[in-house]
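Hey,

Quick one before I head out. I ran the complex with magnesium ion overnight. Inputs first:
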Amino acid sequence: MADRSLSPALRPFDAVGGWTISAVDSLGRFGTFFVEALIAIATPPFKVRAFVDRINYIGYRSLLIILLTGAFTGMVLGLQVYLTLVRFGSEAFLGPAVALSLIRELGPVLAALMVTGRAGSALTAEIGIMRITEQIDALTVMALNPMRYLVAPSILAGLVTFPLMTAIFDVVGIFGGYLVGVELLGLSPGTYFGEMQTFVDMKDIMTGFWKSVSFGVVVTWVCTYKGFNVGHGAEGVARATTQAVVLSSVLILVWDYFMGSILP
Amino acid sequence: MIKVEGLRKSFGRQPVLRDLDLEVATGSITVIIGRSGGGKSVFLKHLIGLLRPDAGRVLVDGVEITHLTGRALDGIRRRYGVVFQGGALFDSMSCADNVAFPLREKLRMPTDEIAKRVEAALGQVGLEGVGAKFPAEISGGMRKRVAIARALVTEPEIIFFDEPTTGLDPVLVNTIHHLILDLHRRFRFTALMVSHEIPEIFEIADTVAMLHEGRIVEVGPPAAIQASANRVVRQFIRGEPDNSEGH
Ligand SMILES: Nc1ncnc2c1ncn2[C@@H]1O[C@H](COP(=O)(O)OP(=O)(O)OP(=O)(O)O)[C@@H](O)[C@H]1O
Ligand SMILES: [Mg+2]
């Protein structure tokens, strides 16, 4: 907070200092929150019911959007990659080109972005409303740890569902590419899948897997944190939800680059 | 016994509690009265460990709770029941599940025992057959009663009520007050209740305390409060309009 007695020349420094302190402070709280969640995950009792409920919430209910976006991503890829490859006379490599871009990059990233938009925002809003209507306080005064009941199941469910959603996205996308490349543009099905098997390695699949696992943790961590630390009233919930989606999306892309450069 | 000494709390530059002292005897019903926005809910939140004071102490049976965290604080809270001003029902659960929740998660009771207790608790607050509904599907007064049932069902030693009867019709106000008195006779819990129900609370309270401008300005048995010479107290319990301040 700007001190009124400060000379005007010093005020910008005061503002920068204040901003830095609050940034470091909120980073610290963000980290502490994760550690508390990990402790809740690592110590019994494990809330199976809440966990199953969260899998339904994050995974099952995102299924439709994953199927839709997966199919169209694959179809777009099939078309564009085909048009590029055909110039070099190497359209036989359409299968591996589609599969590799989906498995290594687009699958994990787009599936994570879609689940963030579908379920991450809802997660933040739900926890935010529980906070402002004192439901989280009610848990706390029952001597029940809200981290255990709300946050830990969500993060665990993210860990499980993001790879599954990514796998579904990849498979549907590969068939979308098949639809365009083979059914519409006349490539032979044997070439599409045969070359794919030759060129896609287990390590490509593992790259996509590790990405999706880490996205699952990042998104649920950000979304539960934003919900937990919501401001006042409906406006606070709205702001937290927007921030959660924006921050999750940015972190997905930044982290994707980072993972892409360290994984083989 | 709950003992509060010199409690102070400000939000930003707004002081809400300034040097508040209060003693609540074990097994008594103490009612806190005071103007809306006067800091009664904030005060209760200090006693249940949801807010930390800027200064002062809260002692529960001699244990200072203001600096407790984690398990130590949970140990104290296990003895508590709390009715929040807004009810704070879990809106993802049915009313019956709300009442069952502390029995299942806090007391780890067997399922058939829980079902029996939940039925009885909802019956006591006049809500038989409402168990399957969700909080969003019932009226505000019904939600309040479910919240009361949820707090009482675990038979806690110390119960905090934040305006348990605000928004209920006069018949229900009396029903709830009688329920509290009846249960109090049976379980001898310590109750601290914030209420605006004047004069009804004078029938059920052992002690009445008036919170004004962040302090307890008068505390005593109902008769003494009703006969108080303090201008603020008299004005409040008679509901006289406020001429001195420009609210
Ligand atoms: N978390 C908070 N942050 C900032 N100010 C707060 C907070 N909680 C309460 N206040 C302020 O503290 C004051 C007292 O609020 P409180 O809710 O305790 O009033 P109350 O006595 O319970 O009133 P009512 O009878 O209407 O429930 C109010 O002015 C309110 O604005
Ligand atoms: Mg209040």
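The CA atoms of residues 232 and 245 of chain B lie 12 Å apart.

Talk tomorrow,
K.
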